């Protein structure tokens, strides 16, 4: 078999068979296919596409390129949750202790943030001493003992995807549906869950800005999951403005604590309920959506989820006192308001610009070597459909550098669109896809 022949075949619009895809991924991962040939293949895929069977085969080949976690030692139905990423997206941190408190085992692999979207691990590391660098034995034991563990992805989890993504990133071949779907699902399937709930974001702050593209990606991923024997559901959610009011690591942790006390922002909780409902249904902890929603409400009101969150943080080396006293979490030296220059109604908040502003402050990574400042970020005091008067505060910049605060303030101010007419808020949950 020759890579040249496979490139030519795909360039001509023909299907690659299972054996060819398996060979290609194995040889590329082991360094016997050079980058320039794989670049030619990904470009051919961008122009010619892949059908469902090819996309599934590519996913499974990447999944099997490294470790596949065996979670069979964990009792119960393991339901994983994945988000395609967004600004202020702290859903996992609210949701996982809720479902864990309701008897659904949470064995989750999470990543760090890069660019304008935040990472779950970065947020958790706002707690002093917290670590996601835990052994597989500790990971499994934690889930069996307290019902929840979140670990960083191992270096050998779908290594083919890691190598292929790095190549796609520098050859303008990231935005192809089959390549995106197989990249995400290869890691999810390697993580060992029994069922998967996907939060596919759409809007200005999302990777898939057009709703039809988000739906197409969701359908592709659901198809892969179901073909792999994992019941998979996707929920399309809005990311036209940041989720919740806080953007930035420790600030988002404080909002998570508020949410687990029952004081979470409405938009955040709408997404938490939508995803949590699907997780409880897949885990067979609820017979229908109404029962699932009632269970989630009960977990929050009775502080079951808050207690589970504290137990989880302490189990992985964190200081649970910081949950009881959030002022102990990292905080910024300066808090600077961004003021409205006109009156009207908030029509739009460009989520991506808010994310970039947070990154400018040091709350996100411009590259993999960037150091995170956990105390900085942005609190939005006005959201879409809110009225505002001239001179009122739109947002609060939390900064450790006055120079960075000035840059971030400009980005935040420009992210807001103020109209004279009342603006309507888009629904947070667009649709649910099961097949």
UniProtKB/TrEMBL annotation:
GO terms for molecular function: pyrimidine-nucleoside phosphorylase activity. The keyword Protease does not apply. Its EC number is 2.4.2.2. SUPFAM superfamilies: Nucleoside phosphorylase/phosphoribosyltransferase catalytic domain, Nucleoside phosphorylase/phosphoribosyltransferase N-terminal domain, Pyrimidine nucleoside phosphorylase C-terminal domain. InterPro entries: Glycosyl_Trfase_fam3, Glycosyl_Trfase_fam3_N_dom, Glycosyl_Trfase_fam3_N_dom_sf, Nuc_phospho_transferase, PYNP-like_C_sf, PYNP_C, Pyrmidine_PPas_bac/euk, Pyrmidine_PPase_CS. Residues 345-419 form the Pyrimidine nucleoside phosphorylase C-terminal domain. The keyword Protein transport does not apply. Keywords: Glycosyltransferase, Transferase. It catalyses: 2'-deoxyuridine + phosphate = 2-deoxy-alpha-D-ribose 1-phosphate + uracil; uridine + phosphate = alpha-D-ribose 1-phosphate + uracil; thymidine + phosphate = 2-deoxy-alpha-D-ribose 1-phosphate + thymine. Pfam families: Glycos_trans_3N, Glycos_transf_3, PYNP_C. Homodimer. Catalyzes phosphorolysis of the pyrimidine nucleosides uridine, thymidine and 2'-deoxyuridine with the formation of the corresponding pyrimidine base and ribose-1-phosphate. Belongs to the thymidine/pyrimidine-nucleoside phosphorylase family. This is Pyrimidine-nucleoside phosphorylase. It comes from Maccoyibacter intestinihominis.
């Amino acid at each position: 078999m020759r890579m040249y022949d496979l490139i030519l075949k795909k360039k001509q619009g023909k299907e690659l068979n299972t054996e060819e895809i398996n060979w290609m991924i194995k040889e590329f991962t082991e360094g016997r296919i050079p980058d320039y040939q794989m670049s030619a293949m990904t470009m051919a895929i961008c122009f010619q596409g892949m059908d469902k069977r090819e996309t599934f085969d590519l996913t499974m080949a990447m999944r099997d390129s490294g470790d596949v976690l065996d979670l069979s030692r964990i009792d119960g139905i393991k339901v994983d949750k994945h988000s395609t990423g967004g600004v202020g997206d702290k859903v996992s941190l609210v949701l996982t202790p809720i479902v864990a408190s309701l008897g659904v085992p949470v064995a989750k692999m999470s990543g760090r943030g890069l660019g304008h979207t935040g990472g779950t691990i970065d947020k958790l590391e706002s707690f002093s001493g917290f670590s996601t660098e835990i052994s597989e034995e500790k990971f499994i034991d934690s889930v069996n003992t307290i019902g929840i563990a979140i670990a960083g992805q191992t270096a050998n989890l779908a290594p083919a995807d890691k190598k292929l993504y790095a190549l796609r990133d520098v050859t303008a071949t990231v935005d192809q549906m089959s390549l995106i779907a197989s990249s995400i699902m290869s890691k999810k399937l390697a993580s060992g869950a029994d069922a998967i709930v996907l939060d596919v974001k759409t809007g200005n702050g999302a990777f898939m800005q057009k709703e039809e593209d988000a739906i197409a990606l969701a359908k592709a991923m659901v198809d892969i999951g179901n073909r792999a024997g994992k019941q998979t559901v996707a929920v399309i959610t809005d990311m036209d403005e940041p989720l919740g009011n806080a953007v930035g690591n420790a600030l988002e942790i404080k909002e998570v604590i508020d949410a687990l006390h029952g004081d979470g922002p409405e938009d955040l909780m709408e997404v938490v309920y939508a995803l949590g409902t699907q997780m409880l249904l897949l885990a067979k902890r609820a017979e229908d959506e109404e029962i699932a929603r009632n269970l989630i409400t009960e977990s929050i009101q009775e502080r079951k989820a808050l207690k589970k969150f504290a137990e989880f943080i302490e189990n992985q080396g964190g200081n649970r006192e910081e949950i009881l006293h959030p002022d102990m979490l990292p905080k910024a030296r300066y808090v600077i308001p961004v003021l409205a220059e006109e009156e009207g109604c908030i029509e739009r908040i460009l989520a991506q610009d808010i994310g970039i502003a947070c990154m400018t402050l040091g709350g996100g990574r411009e590259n993999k070597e960037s150091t995170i400042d956990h105390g900085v970020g942005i609190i939005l005091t006005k959201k879409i459909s809110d009225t505002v008067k001239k001179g009122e505060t739109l947002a609060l910049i939390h900064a450790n550098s006055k120079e960075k605060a000035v840059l971030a303030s400009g980005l935040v101010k420009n992210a807001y669109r103020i109209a004279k007419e009342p603006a309507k808020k888009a629904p947070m949950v667009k649709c649910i896809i099961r097949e």
